From TrEMBL:
InterPro entries: Ala_racemase, Ala_racemase/Decarboxylase_C, Ala_racemase_C, Ala_racemase_N, Ala_racemase_pyridoxalP-BS, PLP-binding_barrel. SUPFAM superfamilies: Alanine racemase C-terminal domain-like, PLP-binding barrel. Residues 246-371 form the Alanine racemase C-terminal domain. The gene is alr. It catalyses: L-alanine = D-alanine. Its cofactor is pyridoxal 5'-phosphate. It is an enzyme of class 5 (isomerase). This is Alanine racemase. The active site is at K39, Y267.
Length: 391
């Protein structure tokens, strides 16, 4: 376990991750398996800790975006299936094969280049179908035929899965989603006529697995809701399952003073006291991901909402207090104090963005403290030399 010497930290509740997976399992039924999506350092929560909690709770496999993310998980000792959902350079497929990492493919040139490589082990592949996301994937049955022939010709290549991704599963209007389902159905019919071997089909992200639990598939890819956030306000309104947020962000007051009327705070002196006012300094700033546009948002102190005043600096910001507090008083930026709560959804709305961005934007300079049933079980501090090779 690492340690840290600053008074700002992220708390990640691993029991919430497990709770959310258990809620999903009940919702989709026990025959369906779960890819725990842990790309982008598990949406900023910490990949290895989340991956372990997810697998302990019954997820069958892990999904990431980058080969580097998959290799890191393998090197940390994860032996479960790992899928890279993004595009990987064809020449890097040999490393994937060596480490038993499954890759996504959809281009004829790509598969031809891979077939020219020396592969130490069989390479597991998932064919991506673009049924309307317009990002990655084949779009026609002709392309499918070409790719299947390429795979069939080379016994080192194993078609492990086929998948697609929905663009609007979190939307109140289901028309585009239904279009994608229709396209998927057509391609699946053709596929089944061409391919007899068993493959794993997976289509649903969090939104689709919450709203359409009866989708015909072997796996779902569970991301944002594993972390306890609803994919959109629409889905939050429907609340198919209860979720517990895993992520919270805290700090502690490091300085308190009383400003007199007319005295100002921070760069640009954008805030000036209109009467005698208690002001506290909080040691977290835009270099930690608490970006300048969050000026004015509330934080929690002593179970009450207090506003950030003046510009947010690189490492610090100031808040207006209702009374004098001691140095060391806890400040909660995301999370709960008593009856008050500031959610990632609220921060996202303040920034006019989606909740996915909020935990992702809290930089790794902020240590992550992992808790399970109120107990600290691990601490990750990216600045600790424990985690770095020295020069
Ligand atoms: C990120 C991602 C997911 C997970 O989506 P959530 O909305 O977070 O559940 C699923 N599939 C693909 C292809 C992704 O890139």
């Amino acid at each position: 376990m690492q340690t840290f010497y600053r008074d700002s930290w992220v708390e990640v509740r691993l029991d919430a991750i497990e709770y959310n997976i258990n809620q999903l399992k009940q919702h989709i039924g026990k025959d369906k398996k779960i890819y725990a999506v842990v790309k982008a350092d598990a949406y900023g929560h910490g990949d290895t800790q989340v991956a372990k909690a997810a697998l302990d709770a019954g997820a069958a496999a892990l999904a990431v975006s980058l080969l580097d993310e998959a290799i890191r998980l393998r090197e940390c000792g994860f032996t479960c299936p790992i899928l890279v959902m993004g595009w990987v350079r064809p020449q890097d497929a040999s490393i994937a094969a060596e480490m038993d990492i499954s890759l996504t493919f959809f281009q004829e040139d790509w598969i031809k280049e891979v077939k020219n490589l020396d592969l130490a082990n069989p390479l597991k592949l998932h064919m991506k179908w673009d049924t309307g996301m317009g990002r990655l994937g084949i779009r026609s049955v002709e392309e499918m035929q070409v790719l299947l022939k390429e795979v069939q010709e080379d016994e080192r290549l194993i078609l492990e899965g086929i998948f697609t991704h929905f663009a609007t599963a979190d939307d109140s209007d289901a028309a585009y989603y239904q279009e994608q389902q229709k396209r998927l159905g057509e391609m699946l019919t053709e596929f089944k006529a061409l391919w007899q071997d068993q493959v794993n089909v997976h289509t649903s992200n969090s939104a689709a697995s919450l709203r359409y639990p009866g989708n015909e598939e072997d796996f779902v890819r569970f991301g944002i809701s594993m972390y306890g956030l609803y994919p959109s306000p629409v889905v939050k309104g429907e609340r198919q399952i209860e979720l517990q947020p895993a992520f919270s962000l805290h700090s502690r007051i490091v300085h308190v003073k009383k400003l007199k009327e007319g005295e100002c705070v921070s760069y640009g002196a954008t805030y000036c006291a209109t009467e005698d006012t208690w002001i506290a300094t909080v040691p977290l700033g835009y270099a930690d991901g608490w970006i300048r546009r969050l000026q004015g948002i509330d934080v929690l102190v002593d179970g009450k909402r207090r506003p950030i005043v003046g510009r947010i600096c690189m490492d610090q910001f100031m808040i207006e207090l209702d009374k004098e507090y001691d140095v060391g008083e806890q400040v909660t930026l995301i999370g709960r104090q008593g009856d008050e709560e500031i959610t990632a959804d609220e921060v996202a709305a303040y920034l006019d963005t989606i909740n996915y961005e909020i935990p992702c934007m809290i930089s790794e300079r902020v240590p992550r403290v992992y808790k399970s049933n109120q107990h600290i079980v691990d601490i990750e501090n990216s600045l600790s030399t424990n985690s770095r090779k020295m020069m």
